[in-house]
Specification:
22% of the residues lie in helices and 25% in strands. By secondary structure, it is α+β, with helices and mostly antiparallel strands. The protein has an 8-stranded parallel β-sheet. Strands 32, 33, 34, 35, 37, 38 and 40 form a 7-stranded antiparallel β-sheet that branches. Strands 22-23-24-29-26-27 form a 6-stranded antiparallel β-sheet. The mean pLDDT is 97.
Length: 794
């Protein structure tokens, strides 16, 4: 009987063999020049090397860069236009020589690390694996992965090869990441709906309870785009229900016998097809939780079909063990388990694997196999998506990342932005966290709010909590002010979808992470490496999350930020900052610091509800400066995005304080994908007054004086139209005067008026020549108050 092959869709496309012109080899070594700064160095006692794809590296057929090779008795020296690689044949060690003559050993000294498998039970202590970025400018990835053969199967390596990739990109981190994706495969274009708000909770909902909950979100105008159904969608009390005697999961004795399951619990969901249909009709994409470790057992609804596919007589009621090394099992599993439910309305699967790292093939992590094959299979109808834990280098090909069961503590939130940003160093750009924390910990309304506010500016905003009646993450479960601010934050996340989706496209095509460490944009600034929680959120925004409690005396919480050169404006408060310094930023409950760069252009959806369609009402936040931004739009979830898309270029320019010009160019591409006419809004956020001229297709439409922040609204604009707005005689937005700042900060200081008035009067007397900062510095005000005033005097 011939071996069963994987179904064609489960065979990944790879091109692992390098061009012969890129290879320099000897008896026990082989060097492949992949780019002018990326080298593969293989050493082998037997002289046998690997041309197959591995779990991590799929593409080595890159165009040969220009290089010169000098192969002597003791060394091999390869010089490209960028660097020189020197390989010592005896020690089998390598070093990089830069154009300036610097010699850098090819080690991982100074490695900036990457990410880790999970945050399960984590309090904020991380043990990252190595990444491909380094402070020294040289990083090494040693590929120990198994072979991914041409038939899509994983198999053991057949040689003793030590297989290393040397990244010698200096501080050009963005190019390093882009070239990393060239050899490992790029990040898929994530479906548009994933960038809205998600609802998730480990809870045994009934069908009606879940419908009522989602209807309540609709009624409260809180936009949710993904409805997650945790494990209680299927039977969990299997011993009681089916008369079995499993007692616990075969894969993990600490988990119940119903941890794995595939048959709907009809006590909770009497009409699951109607339930899924209702969710889909209301605009919710559905994902459901899976723990696949116990295979498909004899009591499951699809057991007979699965058994027949496996060549098992269903009458024997033989349980079918989980085995992701068996092609027959893999094919049958997707055909009989997943596909029928997907046809019923399940969009993708949450693979909640917690059951070890062993399979029948030594070295194959079942998590990797699940992520790999589930992603390939989910692409049969639309763009693939999963939610699952990280399984090593190359996992970026399988978005999204589920970071695991997070503890509800400030310490867990405190480092989560760093965890997210740092994952870019190994190309893992789409982490999804349990926003609000999952389990244990403490009830703290402020912690919940800060977590939600961070979640809005994280890759995926998925609210999640445990099955305790006391720990829901619905905004209305918290005190009124927190409910209000959390709701506003969730609404803003939904408005951000056009911006985030464009960044998603940049990740897919340019290899640019949406959450970048600050040293990506400012690699030559030492201070950029010191603010681990701070990051660029796409090309236009810098985020400084607040991850500590409010000071009861001032009513604000603080974050120490590093401001790069240039002008930065908070999109929520309007506060303007000037860079090249560290500064503490203070905020009340309403927001966290999110700063727009000079010339920032931020597209937002003005449509209501939870629709993720390309908006009919499109808004632009615009900041003075010189910049351009190209909005990317497509169908949102199908596989035609390579040929069917729309790009709309916007640009802003400022002419020496004389005028500000904003231009929205005609859209290009498949215009059937966007509304025939749009209602457009343009907000010039850092201008307080201006003469405003509006042109449509070069024809003047209006010329008006605006004595407040200019907001231009144009209805019925066609995609082929060109909009130009010119501001003259404009007044820039400035921060409040020093005296006003001091009064405002001291007014909310929670202290007795007698003491406050004395100190306030003393500060006022010290002010000379409007030098408020010196007056505050010489005053007897507490340090905290001084710092808050300094921020607002910037």
């Amino acid at each position: 009987m011939s071996k069963v092959k994987l179904d064609e869709r489960l065979i990944a496309v790879t091109h692992p063999e390098a061009l012969k012109s890129s290879v320099v080899s000897g008896k026990n070594f082989r060097i492949t020049v992949l780019t002018d700064r990326l080298f593969r160095v293989e050493t082998s006692v037997t002289g046998k090397f690997i041309d197959d794809a591995t779990q991590s590296v799929w593409f080595r057929n890159l165009e040969t860069p220009k290089y010169k090779a000098e192969n002597t008795e003791n060394t091999v020296k390869i010089t490209t236009d960028a660097v020189t690689l020197v390989f010592d044949k005896k020690s089998e060690k390598s070093k990089i020589v830069t154009k300036s003559g610097a010699v850098i050993p090819a080690t991982n000294k100074g490695n900036l690390k990457g990410t880790m498998r999970t945050l399960d039970g984590n309090f904020g202590i991380y043990f990252f694996k190595l990444g491909i970025m380094s402070k020294t400018g040289v990083a090494v990835f040693q590929d120990k992965g198994l072979i991914l053969n041409k038939d899509g199967e994983v198999e053991a390596r057949k040689t003793d090869t030590i297989d290393k990739y040397i990244f010698a990109y200096g501080t050009d981190y963005r190019t390093a990441l882009k070239d990393f994706f060239r050899i490992t495969g790029g990040v898929p274009l994530v479906p548009r709906y994933a960038f809205g708000n998600w609802w998730s909770r480990y809870r045994a909902y009934t069908q009606q309870e879940y419908v009522d909950l989602m209807q309540r979100f609709i009624d409260k105008d809180i936009p949710i785009t993904v409805a997650t159904i945790d494990m209680d969608w299927h039977w969990v009390n299997v011993d009681e229900r089916f008369g079995t005697d499993y007692k616990h999961s075969a894969a993990n004795r600490f988990q119940g016998p119903g941890w794995t399951g595939y048959s709907w619990n009809t006590d909770l969901f009497p009409d699951y097809k109607g339930f899924l249909k209702w969710l889909n009709e209301k605009g919710f994409k559905v994902t459901m939780n899976l723990h696949p470790a116990d295979g498909v057992r004899h009591f499951e609804d699809m057991y007979e079909d699965m058994a027949r596919e496996m060549g098992i007589d269903p009458d024997t009621k033989t349980d079918i063990p989980f085995d992701m090394t068996d092609n027959r099992y893999i094919n049958a599993y997707f055909k009989t388990v997943n596909h029928p439910y997907e046809d019923d309305g399940v969009e993708f699967w949450w693979i909640d694997w917690q059951q070890g790292r062993k399979t029948a093939l030594s070295g194959l992590d079942p998590l990797w196999a699940l992520n790999h094959y589930f992603t390939l299979d989910n692409a049969r109808k639309h763009r693939p998506l999963i939610l699952s834990r990280y399984a090593g280098v190359g996992s970026h090909r399988y978005p999204l990342g589920f970071s695991g069961d997070c503890i509800v503590f400030w310490s867990a939130l405190r480092k989560q932005p760093y965890f997210t940003n740092n994952a870019a160093n190994v190309g893992y750009t789409w982490w999804s966290h349990d926003i609000g924390g999952h389990m244990f910990g403490i009830r703290d309304d402020e912690l919940y709010l800060r977590w939600v506010q961070y979640g809005v500016f994280s890759p995926i905003n998925r609210l999640h909590s445990s099955n305790s009646d006391l720990s829901g993450k619905e905004p209305w479960s918290y005190r009124a002010d927190v409910d209000h601010f959390a709701t506003e934050a969730l609404k803003f996340r939904h408005k951000l979808i056009p911006y985030i989706y464009t960044m998603n496209y940049k990740t897919h095509t340019e290899g640019r992470a949406i959450c970048e460490p600050m040293y990506y944009a400012y690699p030559d600034e030492k201070d950029a490496f010191k603010v681990k929680n701070q990051y660029m959120f796409g090309s236009e925004l810098m985020v400084c999350p607040i991850v500590s409690r409010i000071n009861k005396n001032t009513g604000t919480a603080a974050v120490k930020a590093w401001l790069p050169h240039g002008r930065w404006t908070d999109i929520f408060t309007g506060q303007v900052y000037h860079g090249e310094k560290f500064l503490k930023l203070f905020r009340g409950e309403s927001s966290i610091p999110v700063l727009a760069k000079e010339g920032a252009i931020i597209p937002l959806s003005g449509d209501g509800g939870n629709s993720v369609k390309n908006p009919e009402n499109l808004e632009f936040l615009i900041y003075r400066g010189n910049n351009e931004f190209t909005l990317y739009e497509d169908q949102g979830e199908d596989l035609s995005y390579d040929v069917s898309f729309v790009k709309t270029k916007a640009e802003v320019s400022e002419n020496d304080g004389k005028d500000v010009t904003f231009t929205l160019h005609p859209s290009e591409g498949d215009l059937s994908l966007i509304p025939e006419k749009r209602n457009l809004s343009f907000s010039f956020a850092d201008v307080s007054k201006a003469q405003v001229k509006v042109y449509l297709n070069e024809v003047l439409q209006s010329d008006e004086t605006c004595n407040t922040q200019p907001i231009v609204c144009l209805n019925g604009v066609k995609p082929t139209d060109k909009v130009t707005i010119v501001l003259t005689d404009y007044k820039i937005r400035v921060n409040p005067a020093g005296g006003e700042v001091i009064a405002k900060v001291m007014a909310r200081w929670q202290k007795g008026y007698f003491k406050k008035n004395i100190l306030y009067s003393a500060v006022k007397k010290k002010v000379k020549s409007r030098d408020y900062k010196s007056a505050v510095k010489r005053s007897l005000l507490p340090k905290r108050l001084k710092e808050e005033i300094y921020e607002n005097l910037d």
